[in-house]
Each structure stands twice: as structure tokens, then as C-alpha cells.
């Protein structure tokens, strides 16, 4: 794997960097200027040189100067910041659209042809629009090399867009603290030439060619991609949710309302736990931490997950 963090990875790099460097430069000028002024005042007006205090009257000219100049500088900084931010709010109509599904604690990227990946594959030199959706709490998509960042708010349709300009692999991660495994929301963006991307996008054999030897192996891969192991362990230890070790075929104590009941963790129980996880909660755990995967997983994928759980004796 290689990483190219070039300064022109997207069309927004120059505008954002220009505003950043301008503000940073102004800050340095004031830092150095005020520090030197302070040192000069310490030398010029120290007690040895002026043992007798002298009253210094105000200056209208000085008041005007240090009001007008900072105001102008603030307006200049605002202009360059606004100029870099404003184009981000309107995506071109011919943008290539990808859905970004955020949940605790992973991102999934869904394409119009049905492909789902945990790495964001995008074409070069073409507007890309990411439709941002959260299934639980507030997340935030940040691609540092592209200079783009946007919060992902539940129930609020938001988007971000950019034009990738350099081939390479870049970092993508969540910058909104979203719970215990927030630091694990770390993915990659792969920018490819248009012809290479078209080949990948239209290739329907990729999934079949993946190194999956059995339904159980496929189930483990699916659970890894959708972030199951961020909340559940396979070694018997407790985490956010109950462990998967020894789950299938064994009794589970559930809390329903104010009462408890015991059921066997069979296919029906696992399917219900995936599609309606908050209807029945395992005793000792909290409600509302897991969101439904209804519409996110096919029947075949759920069957493969069940096959994998059967192997965790």
C-alpha cells in the first residue's frame, strides 16, 4: 500500500491552504510584533530607567489605528475563508454520487450499481458527491488530503463533494467523538484514473473472486465490514454488547419490559437481534446501543453471519 499526501489532491486544496496560510501568517506577525513590543517596553520603561512613574495620556490616533487595522485584517481573513468554503456547498449536477453510511463504529460506502465497500473508491478528475447518512449518533467524515470535512447527523441529509486530482491512497476518518470505539472509524480513499475506476466499477466478479472458502468465512468478513467486532468479542469477554463466543445454540437471558425470559440463541433469535435489536435486550446490557440492520443486509448475508456464529464454540 502506498500513500500520496500531495498538496493538490483535490480541487479544494489551494483555497483552504490559502486561507490557512494567510491566517497563520497574520497570527505570526502579531505574535512576533507584540512580543518585540513587550520586550522593548520592558527595557524602555523599566523601574531603573524611570524610578518616578509618569502619567501617559491617551491618543485618539492610536485608538483609531488599533481599531481600524484589526478590523481590516479580520475582514480579509473572513473573505479568504468564505471564498474557500463557499464552493463546497454546491455540488455539480453531473457529480458521481456515493452513499456514505456511518454507524458505531464504521463507514460503509454504497454505489449506485449495488456495490458496498469499506474503502472509498473514486475516479480522478470528476466531481464526486458523498451523500452522508448516520444510523445512530453524530459522526464526521474528514479527508485531510482533500481538505474536506462534514458532520454526519442522524435524520439530516448532508453531503460533501470534491474533484480528486491526484492518483493515490488517502486517509479518511471520523472527527466527531461518537463513543467507545471512535478511534477505530478509520478508512481509506483510493483515487484511480477514470478507465481503471470504470473497470473496477463494472467488474461483477470481484466479490466472487474474493478469498472466501465458506459461508462462515463470508460471514466473518461481513461482520468485520459492518463493525460488529467493535462492540462484540469472540473470546468471551464483555464489551459494549455480549460476546459471540458460544452464543449459537445456548440459552440467553433477555430483559423484556420489566421481566426476564430465557430463550435459545437459534436462527430466529439471531435474525431478530440483527433486524430488531432493541425489542429484547440481553440481561446486563443497555438498550439503544445497537441500531437495526434492516435494509443493510440481505437474507444471504444474514445466513452467512449465522454460519460464522455457529463456529464460535
From TrEMBL:
Its EC number is 7.1.1.9. Coiled coil: none annotated. Its cofactor is Cu cation. Keywords: Copper, Electron transport, Heme, Iron, Membrane, Metal-binding, Respiratory chain, Translocase, Transmembrane, Transmembrane helix, Transport. Residues 93-203 form the Cytochrome oxidase subunit II copper A binding domain. One of its GO terms (cellular component) is plasma membrane. One of its GO terms (molecular function) is heme binding. The keyword Repressor does not apply. PROSITE patterns: COX2 (PS00078), COX2_CUA (PS50857), COX2_TM (PS50999), CYTC (PS51007). Its main location: membrane. The chain crosses the membrane at residues 20-43, 64-85. Residues 1-92 form the Cytochrome oxidase subunit II transmembrane region profile domain. Subunits I and II form the functional core of the enzyme complex. Electrons originating in cytochrome c are transferred via heme a and Cu(A) to the binuclear center formed by heme a3 and Cu(B). Belongs to the cytochrome c oxidase subunit 2 family. This is Cytochrome c oxidase subunit 2.
Amino acid at each position: 500500500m502506498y500513500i500520496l499526501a500531495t498538496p493538490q489532491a483535490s480541487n479544494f486544496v489551494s483555497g483552504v491552504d490559502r486561507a490557512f496560510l494567510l491566517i497563520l501568517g497574520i497570527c505570526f506577525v502579531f505574535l512576533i510584533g507584540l512580543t518585540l513590543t513587550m520586550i522593548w517596553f520592558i527595557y524602555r520603561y523599566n523601574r531603573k530607567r524611570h524610578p518616578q512613574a509618569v502619567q501617559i495620556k491617551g491618543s485618539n490616533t492610536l485608538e483609531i489605528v488599533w481599531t481600524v487595522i484589526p478590523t481590516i485584517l479580520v475582514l480579509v481573513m473572513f473573505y479568504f475563508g468564505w471564498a474557500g468554503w463557499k464552493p463546497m456547498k454546491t455540488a455539480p449536477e453531473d457529480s458521481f454520487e456515493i452513499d456514505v453510511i456511518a454507524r458505531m463504529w464504521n463507514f460503509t460506502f454504497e454505489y449506485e450499481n449495488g456495490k458496498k465497500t469499506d474503502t472509498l473508491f473514486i475516479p480522478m478528475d470528476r466531481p464526486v458527491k458523498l451523500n452522508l447518512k448516520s444510523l445512530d449518533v453524530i459522526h464526521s467524515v474528514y479527508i485531510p488530503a482533500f481538505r474536506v470535512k462534514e458532520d454526519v447527523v442522524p435524520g439530516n441529509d448532508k453531503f460533501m463533494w470534491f474533484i480528486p486530482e491526484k492518483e493515490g491512497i488517502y486517509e479518511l476518518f471520523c472527527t466527531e467523538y461518537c463513543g467507545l470505539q471512535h478511534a477505530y472509524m478509520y478508512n481509506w480513499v483510493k483515487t484511480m484514473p477514470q478507465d481503471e475506476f470504470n473497470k473496477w466499477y463494472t467488474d461483477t466478479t470481484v466479490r466472487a473472486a474474493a478469498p472466501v472458502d465458506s459461508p462462515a468465512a463470508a460471514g466473518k468478513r461481513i461482520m468485520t465490514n459492518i463493525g460488529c467486532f467493535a462492540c462484540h468479542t469472540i473470546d468471551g469477554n464483555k464489551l459494549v454488547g455480549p460476546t459471540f463466543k458460544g452464543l449459537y445454540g445456548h440459552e440467553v437471558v433477555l430483559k423484556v419490559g420489566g421481566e426476564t425470559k430465557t430463550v435459545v440463541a437459534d436462527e430466529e433469535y439471531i435474525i431478530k437481534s440483527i433486524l430488531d435489536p432493541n425489542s429484547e435486550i440481553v440481561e446486563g446490557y443497555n438498550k439503544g446501543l445497537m441500531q437495526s440492520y434492516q435494509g443493510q443486509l440481505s437474507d444471504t448475508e444474514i445466513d452467512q453471519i449465522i454460519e460464522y456464529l455457529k463456529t464460535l464454540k
